[in-house]
Amino acid sequence: MAESRALQRSYPTDARMTRWHAPDGWDHRRFDWPVAPGTPPRGRILFQAGRGDMFEKYLESFAHWRACGWSVTSFDWRGQGGSGRCSPRAHCGHVERFADYHADLAAFWAMWRAEGDGPTIAIGHSMGGFLLLRGLVDGAVTPDGAVFVAPMLGLKGPLGPRLAARLARWMRALGDPARPAWKGNERPATTETRQSLLTRDTDRYEDELHWQQADRTLMTGPPSWNWVAEAFAGTLALADDPRLDAMRVPLLALVAEADGLVDARAALAILSKLPDARIERFGRETAHEILREADPVRDRALAAIDGFLDART
């Protein structure tokens, strides 16, 4: 624990940060942390974070998996973190279409999978979980096992998803689709603070602020109306996808039932359709970022993931 905590606000000296260009030429930032010399290698993990995230937020978890013998790779989604932005508003989380995310993940997976041997595991948090499941259903991502952490399989809001989707399309059409959908908080029209929506652990929440203050280009603010409309359309389409029943990759899903950002009930409904899915439920003890919560929650989450990896590899 002490070793991983020390990595919350510093880059590991034996990790590599490079650039990767998608087939359409889009510039992405890539992170690789090979297993330590002398540690028996168990395989490779590709970890993909959520909307507005950057891989620095998960260095502590990467250190845990690396200590267990896993090499860890991640890349920042286009439009956020250290990857090329999709809007002149540098801090707006905009993307032209979710199909770009899907194409990026498929291309990166094919390249990364060919770079090494042994078991491969894909882990996706929030939006990364949605994009990962879509890649699994499409057959574009083919790991030996997958882990979803608070997956964005539905969006939280006061309206039902179909009505909210129509409203988002209408708002997108009213002006510049790349304009911010709201100001400030992670969720509009809420009295909850950004921290309370993400994590109860103040120290880990401030890790993100540390990285953003060290490099302002890493900051991503509210999503664009185009992102919101695409997110509703994509999650609704996935919920109705008949291929869910045939998706055979074994997976573990960590679901935060009190999540204020993504719809846990929608996630549970989709996950129930998968033939080989184990679900670990968390209650009010955690907000959205389960892997960045207080130690009792985070330790339970890592133990569940470790058990899944032990059983599957």
UniProtKB/TrEMBL annotation:
GO MF entries: hydrolase activity
Gene3D superfamilies: alpha/beta hydrolase
Alphabetical keyword list: Hydrolase
Superkingdom in the source lineage: Bacteria
Protein name: Alpha/beta hydrolase
Alphabetical list of PANTHER family matching this protein: PHOSPHOLIPASE-RELATED (PTHR11614)
One family name in Pfam for this protein: Hydrolase_4
Residue stretches making up the Serine aminopeptidase S33 domain: 40-295
